[in-house]
Design brief:
3-stranded mixed β-sheet; 38% helix; alpha+beta
């Protein structure tokens, strides 16, 4: 009976604090309006926990049966259930007031509440996040995080075709803009009626805080400029990062680089990513201490990491900013032909930095990851990008999250690795199946080192995927982890002066 599902959704909203008991009748009626129902009988409910995805599924199935939800594909269902949750999500002013009141008590109290709120509204879909495959892989750089991303639903062909026929729209300008808050969405843009953002001031300018709906790690947040302005790594960027962790000392925050190939997926809107998580890179030690003239108060060094990382630590934010800017300026113009580092070719710039900021007790810490987006005939996707022999596992750009030690791998690998596992156990020809053919060289290379059984095959594969990801990061490093590469890196740091 559909009245029972409506009653459950209203009860859920009350239990999660999205609405108050005084809102009960209004909440029922606003849901009836969205569902195009004109009658309702109050239902008694027992005290058992309410399964939100199951309730929403029941409501959508009924809406589809009655013709209210015309198309039953995931894109249309997402638009519809987000509209339902949006009816029960408090207005921005209430969310902001709650966040600020809690922040005044303790910053972490505010983010704890806001993170849970973003899940309770179903903006972060807990049921989908739970589908992601995740594990840790031991490597010489520490334990790397591996995730096979299954939480982004695949669009069906009909929805893709329908989206192609839509008139072009420039509203919102991108999926980060503040105008997404409360937006109903369309076939080619996600619904966000249940989305709320929190204003923050970063380096004296208006920014906003939100969480990523895909949550690749704990409290995966996005901090974005109120203005739709392109990303730029510069002195002001370092100031902004350090200012944010001054306000939220329990979070790290970092920025994707500002050039294609080595940058993120959204370069048109200035934004950072952060959260409450310690990545393998943050745990990695300094292996080569450095000294920069005039900055004796800053502890500096090369981090033991597959990519080329300079770490700066100190108590004075402005001093860190000054040294980071000095390093960035030197790197932007740095060429070392012997090391295949070119600042530009044919007027196209190549050098930039992926910066990450965190607190170390009372100190501030900046990791500066040197990046270069040079392409060559042998490596058309990028010389400092996963090379072709690793594309069977990771072909996509290496952005901030990967740089820190978390592999976000494509959903296809769930099926492909299962097929590889089966082939290794049964002895089937890896090259005879299109699911396993691209992995054949890799699997045939490591299989002789193990006694593979049905019980251990997935453990072996997960370990070997982690080793591939370590190689992916080595490929993305601009200075090789060899004696020659280390010498070339020191040539650069000495050039900073």
């Amino acid at each position: 009976m559909i009245d029972n599902a409506v009653a459950k959704l209203v009860r859920y909203a009350e239990e999660k604090g999205l609405i108050q008991p005084e809102d009960h009748v209004w909440a029922v009626n606003t849901l009836l309006d969205a569902l195009r129902l004109d009658s309702y009988e109050e239902q008694p409910l027992d005290g058992s926990p309410i399964d939100l995805p199951a309730v929403l599924t029941e409501l959508m199935d009924d809406a589809h049966a009655r013709g209210v939800l015309a198309n039953d594909s995931v894109v249309y269902r997402d638009l519809f259930d987000t509209a339902l949750m949006g009816r029960l999500t408090p207005p921005p002013r209430e969310v902001i007031a709650k966040f600020r009141a809690l922040y005044a008590e303790y910053p972490r109290k505010a983010t704890d509440w806001y993170y849970k709120f973003s899940q309770d509204t179903n903006y972060i879909r807990r049921d989908r996040i739970a589908k992601d495959m995740q594990w840790k892989a031991p490597t010489k750089y520490g334990e790397l995080d591996i995730t096979i991303n299954l939480s982004k639903p695949e669009k069906d062909p009909k929805a893709i075709a329908a989206a192609r026929d839509l008139p072009a729209s420039a509203y919102p300008k991108c999926q980060l803009c503040r105008e997404n808050e409360g937006y109903a969405g369309r076939l080619n843009h996600p619904a966000r009626q249940n989305h709320r953002v929190v204003p923050v001031t970063v380096d004296g300018k208006p920014w906003f805080l939100q969480y990523s709906p895909y949550v690749y790690y704990n409290e995966h947040c996005i901090v974005f400029n109120a203005a739709h302005t392109p990303m730029k790594i510069d002195r002001a960027c370092f100031r902004k990062l350090l200012d944010f962790i001054s306000q939220f000392p329990h979070y790290f925050v970092g920025s994707n680089a500002d050039l294609p190939i080595v940058g993120g997926s959204i370069l048109a809107h200035d934004h950072f990513q952060g959260g409450h998580y310690e990545f393998a890179m943050a745990k990695a030690p300094v292996e080569t201490p450095l000294a920069f003239p005039g900055f004796d108060d800053i502890r500096a060094g090369v981090v033991k990491w597959p990519m080329s990382v300079l770490r700066l630590t100190g108590a004075d934010k402005e001093r860190l900013v000054a040294l980071a800017d000095k390093i960035l300026t030197a790197w932007r113009g740095y060429t070392d032909e012997a090391a295949m580092i070119f600042a530009e070719t044919d007027g196209v710039p190549h050098n930039t930095i992926t910066p990450i900021a965190r607190r170390r007790g009372e100190d501030f810490e900046l990791d500066l990851v040197l990046r270069n987006n040079l392409t060559t005939p042998e490596h058309p996707l990028g010389l400092y990008h996963p090379h072709a022999e690793l594309h069977h596992i990771k072909k996509e750009n290496i952005g901030l999250i990967e740089v820190m030690g978390l592999a976000v791998l494509p959903a296809r690998l769930k099926t492909e690795l299962a097929a590889v596992a089966d082939a290794l156990v049964t002895g089937r020809d890896l090259r005879a199946d299109e699911l396993t053919a691209s992995h054949a060289d890799w699997a045939e290379g490591f299989a002789p080192r193990y006694t593979i059984t049905a019980e251990n095959v997935m453990d072996v594969l997960q370990k070997e995927v982690g080793l591939v990801f370590a190689m992916v990061l080595e490929h993305a490093g601009v200075f090789e982890r060899t004696e020659d590469g280390k010498a070339a890196l020191l040539r650069f740091t000495e050039s900073v002066g």
